[in-house]
Amino acid sequence: MNHTSLKFTLAPHFRISKLAVKLQILPAGTCLITLRFLMTFLSVFSCRVIQSKNEAFPVGSHVVAYCGWRSHTVCDEKGLIPIIAAWPKDISLSLALGTVGMPGLTAVYGLEEILELKQGETLLVNAAAGAVGSVVGQIAKIKGCKVVGSAGSDAKVAYLKELGFDVAFNYKTVDSLEEALKTASPEGYDCFFENVGGPSSTVALQQMKDFGRIAVCGNISTYNDTAPQTGPYPQMVILMKQLKMEGFMQNRWPHKNEETLKRLMAWVKEGKVKCREHVTKGFENMPAAFMGMLQGENIGKAIIAV
């Protein structure tokens, strides 16, 4: 096996370095994969098998892999997830990293397993134009709910309106986040799909209805902090409004993935869930794309195409 893998490594606070790693002889039970698409966040690949000593993953098969930022890698079957069977030819395999992949699963499980969203309820989602938030809002509309989304640019707000959000606003330009939330839903919010954290979430909690539910999916406002944020603290509003707040990750429900991915694919094919990807071409441009994602430059899923 004569391959060299290009690899990016991530130091604390997102300092990125590049290495070249010589791949060794392929061990039994493993396969060599090369990436086709890369998710900028969490280092997830959509890959093609180019050499194999594992009958479950023949040469030419496509998989999702959690292997870090590298152009080639050797994996055993524990590091590989087959693409769902009968993937439609007219659907890009990049969606295995987005709507019909981990972000889509996150959206479904947050809504159904954590929030237990019901028809007629009002949902608030922040970072609503991102890979997870945009799917969250569309599924909530399928379920017959009112959806309010916040995003960080006018272009993102326009995109949310295209997706069918009932109300969308630019949190960076409103005079008052509190007033924007009250205007969007004067009666308050039954559910809050939390992707951002920080001071804006403190304001959002104040607008929850009594017995409201909050699914904590992300905390992107704090990911690059060099020191922990301090207060205000939410315990009093959680107590007085008797709120339920729960953090989660989609890997809690692996037994449901196959059926859930089929539902997501069906919604995509039916046009009920629309997808937009922010595509950067070239593995060498991954660091810039990653930092752009953290700075909110992308609408939809940030993807590297190789």
Automatic annotation (TrEMBL):
Name of the molecule in the record: Prostaglandin reductase 1
GO aspect biological process, one term? prostaglandin metabolic process
* Organism annotation: Amphiprion ocellaris
Matching CDD domains, A to Z? leukotriene_B4_DH_like
Report the SUPFAM superfamilies cross-referenced here: GroES-like, NAD(P)-binding Rossmann-fold domains
Q: Which reaction does it catalyse?
A: an n-alkanal + NADP(+) = an alk-2-enal + NADPH + H(+); 6-trans-leukotriene B4 + NADP(+) = 12-oxo-(5S)-hydroxy-(6E,8E,10E,14Z)-eicosatetraenoate + NADPH + H(+); pentan-2-one + NADP(+) = (E)-pent-3-en-2-one + NADPH + H(+); leukotriene B4 + NADP(+) = 12-oxo-leukotriene B4 + NADPH + H(+)
EC numbers on record: 1.3.1.48, 1.3.1.74
Quaternary structure, per UniProt, is: Monomer or homodimer.
Tell me the name of the encoding gene. CRYZ
